[in-house]
Amino acid sequence: MFYPLSAFIAYRYAKSNKATQTSFVSFINRFSVAGIALGLMALIIVVSVMNGLEGQLKQRILGIVPHIEITMTPIISENPSRTSNENEVTETPTQTAEKTQTVTLKEISKTPIEGVVATMAYREAEAVVQSRSDLRGVQVHGVQPEVMIEHTLVANHMEQGRFSDLTEGSFAAIIGRSLAIKLEARVGDRLRVMVAGASVYTPFGRMPSQRLVTVVGVFDMGSQMDDKVMYMNLKDVNRLMRDPKGSEQSLRLFLNDAFNYQAVVSALTDRVGVSVNNMKTWRERQGPLFDAVKMEKNMMTLMLLLIIAVAAFNIVSALVMVVTEKQGDIAVLQTQGMLPSSVMWIFVLNGLFNGIKGAGIGLVLGVVITLQLNNILDLIGSPLALAADGRGLPIEMDVVQIAGIALLSLLLCVLASVYPARKAMKIAPSQALQNE
User: Fold this and answer.
1) Contacts of 98 (CB under 8 A, 6+ apart)
2) What is the pTM of this model?
3) Strand partners, 68
4) Tens digit of pLDDT for each residue in 87-128?
């Protein structure tokens, strides 16, 4: 029975107007509610924008970089352990070699693994591209066009041409818009590709493998990788590398979620037996960038949470003054039979109700402003075109994340109410009534 009574009294006092409270206490109360609302609103806006920027980086960069690449190397099979004894004969190197079996890339590609949506024979080489006006270092990606069309975002961001133009034997190439601008190259132009990794010795010295390729397409992902990647047909890259049979090509895995790469790596090592040393993930190339973005988002979240915490702990000041002012009323309630724990719950719930008001206002304002953020920026004359389509700030609202932030704000309000609530619980009725 005391819980509903405590809640009733706390609710009546939380919604009371200024006339029933001292002006200073009322001001602090409203100030704390406004602080919680503004802090929560700012946190929702900042986190949603940071999520959008992280999603754009994930789309632009990880749409080009291989999620997981497996090289073709011998894998040592696991053998059941045997109990050693004195009569056990030491195995010869020949017998040990017989236990070594090669897990081919074809066998790996046929093994169903959760999280992997497609596999593709793949080859990557460092090269230098020369045009009539400039010279640039690039990564040549040898790909299978039909797989790229179906499973990559690059195929959806083609400004000119298409991946189906990368036919075998044509020595055609698709380059990024940034690289095309730097090389002053257009569709139909020919570029010289030189690969030092496949050089040969001639009477004139060591000469790199080189070939004239024709630009058949231009893509624009809007990322820092646009001027570093050139796509060619896998067979043509093998010929360029002087390996027409493709004995050194690897296997590229496409994941439905690139951030879930660790689970796929664990499945490959446990179920298939692929060594970790034979796998390359996107983390090796772009991990520091995403770590920096994540750290920035975490620090911004922490900073805004501290603002909410400061506003929440203003409740302590307001409730302490209320406890001091209402000592006589608290003593009267105790003399009428209210337990000290019930008195404590009055002030805890009063802080919770203030937190609910602040969190509710901040939640509504945060969601509304976030959804209309680009329109607001246009209205004040400060548009920001950071999205892939150039239409403003990328925004990604996570309902679970927003709900967690709101609940954390309420928890801070409750924690801030514990001290004044315990102080009210310890009031002695006899001493309080003597001062009345």
Assistant:
1) none
2) 0.72
3) 253, 281
4) 343 444 434 333 334 567 777 878 888 889 999 999 999 999
